[in-house]
Amino acid sequence: KAGVTQTPRYLIKTRGQQVTLSCSPISGHRSVSWYQQTPGQGLQFLFEYFSETQRNKGNFPGRFSGRQFSNSRSEMNVSTLELGDSALYLCASSLSGVLVRESYNEQFFGPGTRLTVL
Amino acid sequence: KNQVEQSPQSLIILEGKNCTLQCNYTVSPFSNLRWYKQDTGRGPVSLTIMTFSENTKSNGRYTATLDADTKQSSLHITASQLSDSASYICVVYDRGSTLGRLYFGRGTQLTVWP
Questions:
Q1: A95: Cβ–Cβ under 8 A, 6 or more apart, which residues?
Q2: Torsion (CA) A35, B20, B27, B55 in degrees, nearest 10
Q3: pLDDT tens across B30-42, in order?
Q4: How many Å apart are CA A28 and CA B110, to the nearest integer?
Q5: CA distance linking residue A64 with residue A79, whole number of Å
Q6: Residue of chain A minimizing CA distance to B96
Q7: What is the pLDDT of residue A99?
Q8: Residue B18, CA atoms < 13 Å, CB-side half-sphere
Q9: Distance (Å) from the C-alpha of residue B45 to the closest C-alpha of chain A?
């Protein structure tokens, strides 16, 4: 069974630009979550999508958005990039989500997209 | 304030030795606690998931313990190998509502020397 895939693996952008990251979950998984990881803040939750709907959202500005398609593939978009957006962006998939009450689903992470904003 | 604190921040041990990583949390109400291993440049990989009623859970050479009363968890690594060099992240999930929240520790960076 193929794992979670993310594209591209590396990306360099300049301030003010926008970027779209893609995530393909494990086949059969309907929940996709996005995380930002930086040396200073560690891992931070961005949002979760389930069946094409955003079900949960972390404390990030509206410049960060996402969507999920009918095949469960997800995209994350960051507009008006800032230097502080430089980070490893991780996508994770699970059967039905890890934030649903009393859910003990395993969550599988992709390799991440390394975004550098110059 | 819900928080997750991990210690030590970094640790160096010799190959073959044992080590214990700590995770203290103040998250309430508690749902479950997960330990992840993250190799450099890769996504985290789940090691264990522990619920309120579980005290100990093993995954090969990794053994996690949970004391829900004191809100402490530990990850014990036995007979360390070079491949254990990684960041170990503790994540705590609450169940305060239909859709919970998750709280991340900053991780412990483990380096195993030959």
A1: A28, A29, A30, A31, A105, A106
A2: 120
A3: 888 999 999 998 9
A4: 34
A5: 7
A6: A101
A7: 64
A8: 8
A9: 7
- Helix H or strand E segment including A85: none
What's the pLDDT tens digit per position in B72-103? 999 999 999 999 999 999 999 887 655 567 88
pLDDT bracket for residue A103 (50, 70, 90): low
CB pair distance less than 8 Å for B91 and A111: no
Look at residue B112 in the predicted model and tell me its pLDDT: 97
Whether residue B51 and residue A104 make contact (CB cut-off 8 A), yes or no, is yes
Contacts of B49 in chain A (CB under 8 A): 104, 106
Q: Quick one: which of A34, A89, A43 has its CA closest to A67?
A: A34
The residue assigned the tokens 């690594």 is B77
CA distance B28 to B51: 13
Residue A74 pairs with which residues in a beta bridge? Answer: A23, A68
pLDDT at res. A69: 96
| Residue B28 pLDDT | 83
Q: What are phi and psi of B92, to 5 degrees?
A: -115, 135
User: What are the φ and ψ backbone dihedral angles of B55, each rounded to 5 degrees?
Assistant: -100, -35
Distance (Å, whole) CA A75 – CA A59: 18
Q: Under DSSP, is residue B84 helix (H, G, I), strand (E, B) or coil?
A: helix
